[in-house]
Amino acid sequence: TSLAKTGNPLTLAGSNSYTGSTIISTGTLILNNTSALGSTSGVTIGVPSGLGVRGGASAAARSATLGASML
After folding, report:
1. Peptide bond connecting 9 to the previous residue in cis, omega within 30 degrees of 0
2. Per-residue confidence band for 62, with pLDDT thresholds at 50, 70 and 90
């Protein structure tokens, strides 16, 4: 299972358990919880997109691909 984000901002406030990829092709994904990304191995952030981290959350130990060309 993966998370593909498009359009309006989306906030992940709780813990998640998905294990697939996280792809932000448009819009903004906001993390309010350190476990919001589940066990995903990394985040791909397209242009124009964004990843926000709030409230002491962290995206540490995740790889990030910035400015990726989205199909």
Report:
1. no
2. low
